[in-house]
Design a protein that fits this description.
The complex is a heterodimer of chains A (239) and B (265).
Chain A (H helix, E strand, L loop, with lengths): L1 H4 L4 H8 L2 H41 L6 H16 L2 H15 L8 H27 L2 H9 L4 H31 L11 H12 L3 H32 L1
Chain B lengths: L2 E12 L2 E12 L3 E5 L6 H8 L7 E6 L2 E2 L7 H6 L1 E4 L11 H12 L4 H14 L15 H13 L5 E5 L7 H16 L3 E5 L3 H7 L2 E6 L2 E6 L1 H6 L4 H9 L12 H5 L7
Parallel strand pairs in B: 3-8, 3-9, 6-7, 7-8
Antiparallel strand pairs in B: 1-2, 1-4, 4-5, 9-10
Helix pairs in contact in B: 3-4, 3-5, 5-6
Classes of the chains: A mainly alpha (239), B alpha/beta (265).
Chain lengths: 239, 265
């Protein structure tokens, strides 16, 4: 901290990044556009949680009959965890609308959301899968021995226990998703980060970036703390 | 008396390891058969096969004359007619006792919650668990948990009950409360196949005791004959080691107590 404040360029940086009047002027506009980020990650998270669960369940199915489904699910997670998010956003956001297929949405907000859902559901599927694997097979045996079918065992016995255990890591991925909503600025969607770029371009002052960072932090820090708290509680209960 | 359960030449391997080698066994209605034998002799696997939790490799299993191991058998329906209780209780930790006990009837039998709960409370009351219905399993002692597990299996009104070393994970002072519930069940006429190390239970409650070793039935007889006058050398040796035939530990030598099967002869 002292090193930064005493550095030769500090006065210039302070004026460029921490300029009070600029902050006050740009903050409301950025906050307004941040609603787009919120809308995006809330919408995406709903689909991620559902789609990720479907992928994890498909992958956990036993028996040779389900081999193709297991393979598809595994291939999906491999592919979408392996592609840099920003590349996928470019590919889908610019590529698909350019195909000009009638009926296919051209909205970049739409394709940005799809990209994030595709990538994050791959991560979330792995989280769910770890949860499903952590439920001892004897639990399923007990459920099946009562005459519950495969689906009922999963629905009432395995998944409730699995999901409870993976809430903290799911929150972790949710935080990652919130930050990655800034990536959709690259498609031209005007959200908080894009708005701050616009503000910077108008004033040649970088303070709007700091304002944006603060807005993200206000949201992610409490969630991070909550995640840590839940992990600690889970550990206590396991003992 | 009608035959409830019949195993015909049942064989099962895990990979290259044969666990059951041609088991033939039949249970009459109301009969209580106790399965004894060293760990690894295939007793638990036998129960899991009967409950269709493990597919058999060869042979077949008949429930009231109906082959339940063939193709196209409704596995879920068959399991509902056979109750099983496990060594480790396997209660559902995220559900209250009442929900544990009513899950099967509500989901597999499509009973209404009210109907299932009325039946469950009656059963829990009989098992001395009336005031535990709202508790989660981790608040219960091992003996209480195992009684809940028995109640949970009975809620499906099975034809046959399987018990897989249900007292082995319990502290000694909690064994009695579980055995009493099982005894009452036997007295009420339930057909039971019981894997157990409780020789006294086998003696007093069992109609027949079956000794298994290395995946085969070595010997079976009424409890007094098998436990006190075994005909087979292997049975005799097992019973001496488990201190049933020996009057005191002093009779046993370390060689007799530890040598592998077959190496003494």
């Amino acid at each position: 901290m002292l090193l930064v404040v005493n550095s030769p360029g500090w006065e210039d940086v302070k004026a460029a990044f921490f300029y009070g009047p600029e902050f006050r002027e740009s903050f409301p506009d950025i906050l307004e556009k941040f609603r787009t980020n919120v809308k995006l990650f809330l919408l995406a998270e709903v689909f991620i949680l559902v789609w990720g669960l479907v992928l994890a369940v498909l992958r956990s199915l036993q028996g040779p009959v389900f081999f193709p489904l297991r393979l598809l699910s595994a291939a999906y997670t491999d592919v979408f965890r392996g592609i840099p998010t920003i590349l996928l956003i470019f590919l889908l956001g610019f590529g698909v609308p350019a195909l000009q297929i009638s009926g296919v949405p051209k909205s970049q907000f739409f394709w940005a959301t799809v990209s994030l859902v595709l990538v994050y559901s791959a991560y979330v599927a792995e989280v769910y899968r770890a949860g499903i694997d952590s439920v001892h097979p004897s639990q399923e045996a007990a459920a099946r021995s009562l005459g519950l079918n495969r689906f009922q065992s999963l629905r009432y016995v395995v998944l409730p226990q699995a999901i409870r255990r993976v809430v903290p890591p799911l929150l972790n991925d949710f935080i990652g998703l919130q930050k990655d909503t800034a990536l959709v600025a690259l498609l031209g969607v005007v959200e908080a980060f894009r708005q701050s770029q616009i503000e910077v371009a108008g004033s040649f002052n970088y303070t709007p970036y700091v304002a944006t960072a603060i807005i993200f932090l206000v949201l992610t820090i409490p969630l991070t703390r909550l995640t840590d708290y839940l992990i600690a509680r889970e550990r206590r209960q396991r003992r | 008396m009608a035959e409830q359960l019949r195993l015909e030449h049942v064989s099962k391997s895990f990979g290259d390891l044969p666990v059951l080698r041609g088991i033939d066994l039949a249970l009459e209605e109301h009969e209580v058969v106790c399965l004894i034998g060293a760990s690894g002799s295939g007793k638990s696997t036998l129960l899991r096969c009967v409950n269709l939790l493990e597919p058999v490799d060869e042979g077949r299993i008949l429930l009231r004359g109906e082959d339940v191991t063939g193709r196209g058998v409704d596995v879920n329906r068959t399991r509902r007619r056979i109750g099983i209780v496990f060594q480790a209780f396997n209660l559902f930790p995220h559900m209250t006792v009442l929900d544990n006990v009513t899950l099967g009837p509500r989901k597999a039998l499509r009973q209404s919650r009210a109907e299932a709960e009325a039946q469950a409370r009656e059963l829990l009351g009989r098992f001395g668990l009336a005031d535990r219905a709202g508790d989660y399993p981790d608040r219960l002692s091992g003996g209480q948990q195992q009684r809940v597990a028995i109640a949970r299996a009975l809620m499906m009104e099975p034809r046959v009950m399987l018990f897989d070393e249900v007292t082995s994970a319990l502290d000694p002072e909690l064994v009695g409360e579980v055995l009493v519930v099982m005894r009452d069940l036997a007295l009420a006429g339930m057909t039971m196949l019981v894997v157990t190390h409780e020789m006294q239970f086998a003696r007093e409650v069992g109609d027949r005791v079956v000794f298994m070793d290395e995946g085969r039935i070595v010997e079976q007889a009424n409890p007094a004959d098998l436990l006190d006058r075994p005909k087979q050398e292997r049975t005799r040796r097992f019973l001496r080691r488990s201190l049933q035939l020996a009057h005191s530990i002093e009779e046993l030598t370390i060689d007799e107590a530890t040598k592998e099967e077959g190496s003494i002869e």
